[in-house]
Amino acid sequence: MARVAKATEEVEVHYDPKFFSHIQVLEVVSEFGFHAVVVSTGEDVCEVQLQVDGAHSEHSMRMVRNSVEALPGVQEQKFDPGLKKLSISYKPDMVGPRDFIRVIESIEKGSFKAVIYPEKDGRDGHREEEIKKYYKAFLWSLVFGIPLFLLSMVFMYIPRVGRKLDAKVVNMLSIGTILKWILSTPVQFVIGKRFYIGAYKALRHGSANMDVLIALGTNAAYFYSVYSVLRSLSSQNFDSSDFFETSALLITFILLGKYLEVLAKGKTSEAIAKLMDLAPETAILLTLDSKGNVLKEQEIDGQLVQKNDVVKIMPGAKIACDGFVVWGESYVNESMITGESKPVAKRKGDMVIGGTVNANGVLHIKATKVGSQSALAQIVQLVESGQMAKAPVQKLADHVSKFFVPSVIVLSFSTWFAWFLAGKLDGYPKSWIPSSMDSFELALQFGISVMVIACPCALGLATPTAVMVGAGVGASQGVLIKGGNALESTHKVNCIIFDKTGTLTMGKPVVVDIKPLNGMNLSEFLELVAATEVNSEHPLAKAIVEHAKKSRRDGENHVWPEAKDFKSITGYGVEAFVSNKQVLVGNKKLMLDRNVAIRVDAIETLAEIERLAQTGVLVSIDRELQGILAISDPLKPGARQVVTILKSMNVDSIMVTGDNWGTANAIAKDVGIDTVAAETKPEQKAQKVKELQAAGKIVAMVGDGINDSPALVAADVGIAIGAGTDIAIEAADIVLMRSNLEDVVTAIDLSRKTFARIRLNYLWAFGYNVLAIPVAAGALLPAIGLRLPPWISGAAMAASSVSVVCSSLFLKSYKRPKELNVPDMTEIILPDNTKFHIGSVRRAKLLLATPTAVMVGAGVGASQGVLIKGGNALESTHKVNCIIFDKTGTLTMGKPVVVDIKPLNGMNLSEFLELVAATEVNSEHPLAKAIVEHAKKSRRDGENHVWPEAKDFKSITGYGVEAFVSNKQVLVGNKKLMLDRNVAIRVDAIETLAEIERLAQTGVLVSIDRELQGILAISDPLKPGARQVVTILKSMNVDSIMVTGDNWGTANAIAKDVGIDTVAAETKPEQKAQKVKELQAAGKIVAMVGDGINDSPALVAADVGIAIGAGTDIAIEAADIVLMRSNLEDVVTAIDLSRKTFARIRLNYLWAFGYNVLAIPVAAGALLPAIGLRLPPWISGAAMAASSVSVVCSSLFLKSYKRPKELNVPDMTEISVE
């Protein structure tokens, strides 16, 4: 049994190894004309590639192979001397890659060196080569095809040129015919060679594909033309009619289609590569003694981790392998597996999964599963398996061609034979035969006309043109459809599976209710809770602090009281002393552990909260329970409406989630879904999809997480939320770029309408053949004397293709279902309770739009990392003359770094940083992390350095930290801390601090044993290329303005540094939007560049909203353009590309209107009196087709777009921090 994934160019073959080997399978595939390599043999065997240096002779290679062969578990090895690559297959339970390296490097006292081979996937290289091959072939076919078209369709109707081309060389052979023969021959036999090879291999194995039809149709046209040339060469009265251009141009257009096809396929298999990227590149290997004490730490390549290794996982790092915790406590983000954003507490003995992210504590992990046994590898395998099941929509044409091709061949031969036999037997009047022919030639012409008119152009265009237009319309609606596969399956969907977190819900916890228990003042209650939780990094803690900020007038600027003796108890909650009150915030376990009584009414309230799919957080103040906070992940806007609309479309909705049953049932009830599956793992989600498919359902899966990827590919249609993970987006067939759930309805409705258009196209294509073939065969000659010469058959074939294209273009008028046009579907509520609708601001209508240019321009933008959301964005962006930049995260990195150290008393810098870092490594504050990171960089051992122990560590909120390190008292913080601890601040230190603050930097003072030793200058540095971008924009006549919520001092300093003259600081979200409107009122076309929720109103109000790709989901959703790589220079690329695209659109319109202005009078006979020029109808049709083709080719020139050369400077992506 074999399953083919056309999009990823892979085939999965099941065979009995007793009778066949994988080598024989490769040979069979090669016989059919396909290049093939082994991806996996399917056994529980791992493979590793090592680069071996030093093996220069046959003897040394044999020594390496023999040494590796001696290790247990080695199955097979291959050595490529040219690449120095040793490939080893092995059983991971018995041996590992580190053993191979150790053995190789021990040969002859270290004569050999081995490392993991740095190799890109061979399939990617082959795909790139194929894309280049088709592109080159298409360009060469154009080189011959364009002159051939001009000779056949244009020059011959220009009197002077036409007479020269019609000049006879020998007998009736003309110069024009010779030139056409010369130009068409290389296209037919050199450029078109691939179709001959494909047809030969298909026929050799007893099948007929499109290559056979192409070869037959073009050969019939070409060799009939050659016959005509030879007759005219030997005859003085034979009026030859050739159609060399038919065969050459047919091959040219087919090569264009092939190029676009392989280009699209190259984008469909990136999901697996991105899944593999989840595995960390390096791991810290620990060497332990018999008692479990750490003897040594060593950083190794992540691929070198073996079973039973113990590895160290730092906070924020990816876990290197599957295993269990042997030491340490932490929270781990397992959203890639469970889909839930809430981190999971991990202690000794708990299992962890490779690729997940460690949140805050240090963990020691013992590896249990590596290589193909790991959970990540299993997800990859599920994704690959799902892709194997995909069926291309083009299969209808291929299936029909299996019967259609032999039928056409038989019919063509039968037509020739019937007319030839009738001619020999005088079966028809001699008057039917033209004077320049005999009965044999008439019969031959009929046979060739049948062959040409039945050539499968319309059949081949029926699907791709509708898919192309449908995909373009989808993109303008925020629905990215990845080709015909998605369309074919989506239009039949009758069951949709929804993930919960991040799909039906927002994926971010918020406080939805506060249940007071003892009548405590709410303001005081929130003050104490927030002052405690502000020291925690837990998502629930952040939700509580965010809610407390919203409840206050001073909001972000409020300084919470100091929380003393703060403790974070993993899996329980937090405790601290605030304003001399003991505050406990956490779950029931924490309260019971601290002997806090939980009253009956509190237990009932907690049960009610949990019944509503919310999380209850208990708060105790001075050992008395004072209240319960209800925290929930709210439903997305429009979730209920979407489920209701889907029911009206006869589509069932099901929810499958990794969350608990209580939460799942509550959410499902709220949204209107009856069928639920909860507590499911990734493979169980995929299994649920298969169960529904087995029951006869056509299943779509809507998800956003890595854990959804297996189900996304197993489903008939995978639909990914655009704000989800890259893995989910790559694995899906359809991506909802605006992350709006209502676009699920749009995707289904659009696919149904597109596939209805495809059916209509096929009906026309087949109907054309049913009607045209009998006419071409001479069926109407006896009745009305109608005979179709081969060149007329070629024109009819072209007309059929044009009609199919025009039919597909009607999809441009698509409107999404009217039920979706409700005002509250995209409501956004900002932290200050300001509400706005992304759909409430009228966008500029697309006044000038050529779908081909927009489509190509958008595709080029995507390849450059610039996601342009349709023609609206293009129209406005090309006119932009003013850009507003946000500061933090847009112009700056949004991450503090140490930029300078100001020593005061000549203390050794290394010792100074050692003491400061040893203190700050215990803090979670962003400034503390910046200091520790700087200290690591200043040391040779870097990440592996073990800092001295910090005793009696204290974090004083709003002040800084203190501890005893190496028997020295270390204070790190602001002036308030130093004055509070009676540390004298000298005049020069005050001046230094003032200079630091003048430069928009933060000064952190360091005291050691009550004496001020230095000041650290910390800054949020400018993004790479920020200055250059502003300079380039000025040269493009685009003004730059900075609008930020930061203070005036910092804002002015950053603006001066980047070269911006106009600044607005300390602005709220609605003031940013107001600034946009003021500029628009002054006649400016305004673009807004931002990354945060607070930027969203301005992004919507601006003529063009440009979001940083690494920013918030809401900013990305509100924007017209998204900079996927988060590089500021892509702002310049977006404007430059839009200007060039719109210039191309204008050129297309100029040509289209100019063509009509010039051609209509000529077609009406205006030149007949002057120069005798007359255009027959078929020539007018050919000219119309040529006009359309020229517009498409003009748009395709955008593929060669290069971003402005000013951006290609070496320092645009360099960050230098001393």
UniProtKB/TrEMBL annotation:
Coiled coil: none annotated. This is HMA domain-containing protein. GO terms for cellular component: membrane. The chain crosses the membrane at residues 137-158, 170-191, 212-230, 242-260, 403-422, 442-462, 762-785, 791-811, 1149-1172, 1178-1198. The keyword Lipoprotein does not apply. Belongs to the cation transport ATPase (P-type) (TC 3.A.3) family. Type IB subfamily. It is a peripheral membrane protein. One of its GO terms (molecular function) is ATP hydrolysis activity. The keyword Repeat applies. It is found in: Membrane. Residues 46-112 form the HMA domain. CDD domains: HMA, P-type_ATPase_Cu-like. It holds the Pfam family HMA. GO terms for biological process: copper ion transport; plant-type hypersensitive response. The lineage of its organism: Eukaryota, Viridiplantae, Streptophyta, Embryophyta, Tracheophyta. Keywords: ATP-binding, Copper, Copper transport, Ion transport, Membrane, Metal-binding, Nucleotide-binding, Repeat, Translocase, Transmembrane, Transmembrane helix, Transport.
